[in-house]
């Protein structure tokens, strides 16, 4: 049997705390059964997200010491810009404080009321910014992408025929931009193939529609292209990255995910679009040479981007996720397959098949898992959807509990603990009932909404 093994060692540690189950129950109740509202001191293994919590390397930490503090013209920023231009190959780069800031600015400039933004799949914040500017998000994921169990290697691929049909139906002018999320977040961290990006890019170029990549989860996606796509097998990671980037007009990313740091950025090819976006940076983010990021974080991201081009660094997430998904599958726990990036995704719809989707099964499972184990996951289902304008509630395509594996953070024995507790919870799944809102915010309600057992 093969076990994953890390190509790094741990040299700084943080002590963890495992509360007794009675205290975990109280903590869950005080958090309104929303894992976002738990205090981290009450959490044993924090698998809420990989955002801003990936482990830094010694080279990143060392770089943070030489950061050049300057409002304007910081040498630290120049180092990041040069690195981004080297890796992404785009002429222009703008710094922003995190991924959703890039989404805010791109939607502000490109989305007009009544326009459409087709994408392989939405992410919560990317959709919210399109909608806030009067646009409509259309998801053109291939049907395989929504099958919870499959052996399809690239379930994040976009349906190119559907994109062509949409353009001939609405007209190219009605399409604000086409967004490719590589890899996808809400459908189980599933990657997009280079072949699919190439096809979509050709359609966009034929019609003069800007093609935008959300590269927040690109590290895992690069690994999957290298290991699952025949045409990439003989390319190194940098070459795959450049082959992708050359297909796009705009690439933005959350450096809380890619680059093992905290920040974000937008790469732009076209001069006019660059100038329009640049005007908004000082208004919303900060001056052009920091964009809301601390110079120390900028140094860490610059080094982290190089580490993202190193297969020994970016393989750890996907191979640990693969291990966790396969072990859960062996125990009969319903999971999304094939294993993707970002984390292991538990299929709450099958796990709690006695609950209705309006009972928020993924939220119920996330809270139950915390109580049973101290492991904090994230609801990625109907609770993460936004109500329609008429107040009705759209049901999510999938009801997932995501157990994110921040890069380079957890050990295999910690994964085994989580697997064992999930196994126990699955054996005792009838203990878990449905939930209802006691407090429901209007926008991005999953962040601070509160629930109670129905
Ligand atoms: N795009 C994708 C695909 C993301 O996964 C995220 C964040 C963002 C954009 C927004 O970036 O957080 O830096 O503003 N995903 C985090 C998560 C929050 O937990 O999945 P941000």
TrEMBL record:
One Pfam family named in its UniProt record: Beta_elim_lyase
Domain Aromatic amino acid beta-eliminating lyase/threonine aldolase per the UniProt entry, residue ranges: 46-417
InterPro entries reported for this sequence: ArAA_b-elim_lyase/Thr_aldolase (IPR001597), Beta-eliminating_lyase (IPR011166), PyrdxlP-dep_Trfase (IPR015424), PyrdxlP-dep_Trfase_major (IPR015421), PyrdxlP-dep_Trfase_small (IPR015422)
EC code: 4.1.99.1
Entry cofactors: pyridoxal 5'-phosphate
Keywords (A to Z) from UniProt: Lyase, Pyridoxal phosphate
Modified residues (N6-(pyridoxal phosphate)lysine): 257
Domain of life from the UniProt record: Bacteria
Any GO MF annotation of the entry: tryptophanase activity
Coiled coil: none
Lyase as UniProt keyword: yes
Protein family according to the UniProt entry: Belongs to the beta-eliminating lyase family.
Name of the protein described by the UniProt record: Tryptophanase
């Amino acid at each position: 049997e093969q076990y994953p093994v890390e190509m790094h060692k741990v040299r700084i540690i943080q002590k963890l705390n495992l509360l007794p189950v009675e205290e975990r129950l109280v903590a869950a109740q005080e958090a309104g059964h929303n894992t976002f509202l738990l205090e981290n001191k009450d959490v044993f293994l924090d698998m809420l997200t990989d955002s801003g919590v990936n482990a830094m390397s010694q080279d990143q930490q060392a770089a943070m010491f030489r950061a050049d503090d300057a409002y304007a013209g910081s040498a630290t920023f120049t180092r990041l810009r040069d690195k981004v231009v080297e890796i992404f190959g785009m002429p222009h780069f703008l710094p922003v404080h995190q991924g959703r800031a890039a989404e805010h600015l791109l939607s502000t400039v490109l989305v007009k009321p009544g326009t459409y933004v087709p994408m392989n799949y939405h992410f919560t914040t990317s959709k919210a910014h399109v909608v806030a500017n009067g646009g409509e998000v259309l998801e053109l994921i291939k049907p395989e992408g929504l099958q919870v169990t499959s052996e399809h290697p690239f379930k994040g691929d976009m349906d190119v025929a559907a994109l062509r049909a949409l353009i001939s139906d609405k007209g190219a002018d009605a399409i604000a931009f086409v967004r490719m999320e590589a890899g996808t977040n809400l459908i189980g961290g599933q990657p997009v193939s280079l072949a699919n990006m190439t096809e979509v890019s050709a359609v966009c170029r034929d019609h003069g529609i800007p093609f935008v990549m959300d590269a927040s989860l690109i590290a895992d996606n690069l690994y999957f292209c290298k290991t699952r796509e025949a045409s990439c097998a003989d390319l190194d990671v940098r070459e795959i990255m450049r082959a992708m980037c050359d297909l796009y007009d705009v690439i933005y990313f959350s450096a809380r995910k890619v680059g093992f740091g905290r920040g974000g950025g937008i790469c732009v090819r076209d001069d006019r679009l660059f100038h329009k976006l640049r005007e908004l940076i000082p208004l919303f983010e900060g001056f052009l040479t920091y964009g809301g990021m601390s110079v120390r974080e900028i140094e860490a991201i610059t080094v982290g981007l190089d580490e993202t081009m190193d297969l020994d660094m970016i393989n750890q997430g996907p191979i640990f996720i693969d291990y966790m998904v396969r072990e859960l599958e062996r125990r009969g726990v319903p999971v999304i397959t094939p294993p993707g990036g970002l984390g292991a995704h538990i299929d709450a719809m099958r796990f709690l098949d006695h609950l209705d989707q309006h009972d928020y099964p993924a939220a119920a499972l996330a809270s139950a898992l915390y109580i049973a184990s101290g492991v904090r996951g994230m609801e990625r289902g109907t609770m993460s959807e936004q109500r329609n304008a008429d107040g009705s509630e759209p049901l999510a395509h999938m009801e997932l509990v995501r157990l994110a594996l921040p890069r380079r953070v957890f050990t295999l024995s910690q994964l085994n603990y989580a697997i064992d507790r999930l196994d126990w919870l699955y054996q005792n799944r009838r203990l878990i009932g449905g939930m209802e809102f006691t407090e429901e915010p209007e926008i991005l309600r999953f962040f601070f909404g509160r629930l109670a057992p129905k």
